[in-house]
User: Fold this.
Amino acid sequence: MNIFRISADLLHLASFFILIFKMKATKSCKGISFKTQLMYTLVFTCRYLDLFHVLGMMITFNFAHITGLTLYNTFMKILFLAASYYIVYLMRTELKSTSDDARDTFVLWHILAPCAVLALIFNAQFTILEILWTFSIYLEAVAVMPQLMLLIETGEADSLSSHYMFAVGGYRALYLVNWVYRYATEPYYSNWIAWIAGFVQTALFGDFFYYYFVKIMSGDAALKLPT
Amino acid sequence: AKLAEGHDEL
Assistant:
């Protein structure tokens, strides 16, 4: 565990809290893409199925392979799952009337189908768990596309929404640094699937980061895209 | 050390 990895995870965790805080404080999920949030629940569900493996080891008192890192990962995985499901739940119950569904027009099959096909072809091992993990990595990389499309459609984002997007995008950028660090310091460490997907994911945020920093530098509350 | 999970990152 290095400083880049832990910072990335904390930034990711912060993104959930920012979004939940925004929704609770303003009683609105305006400007937030339900489709992107739904994809994140699918991403975490497919990726963290190994929680059952850890749970299985715990209830059989088989602690031999459970390390501090396992406990940390398990704790964070449960938090990420709970937070993403809670966000989707909020957007479909008490905040449904404020949801930007009419403008959230991205067709999810356009990312779901290619990610599923790629996961079946390019994976480290042809097992159900590994294919679902790979699918989640590919899907996460592009899951922000409905959110970016909604942002372009709207032309601007309020302060908390833009901080949220910065946290979500920034976390993967920090993971890129973490991978470089690990590659340099750990023997035999490589994971091309995560690296390429992580690079694509970060690149998709490129424009957004630019406008976010312009906003921060100019001291504006809202992020505005050029018309 | 063998990890409890398949992958050691989130």
In short: The two ends of chain A are 43 Å apart (CA to CA). The first strand of chain A starts at residue 156 and ends at 157.
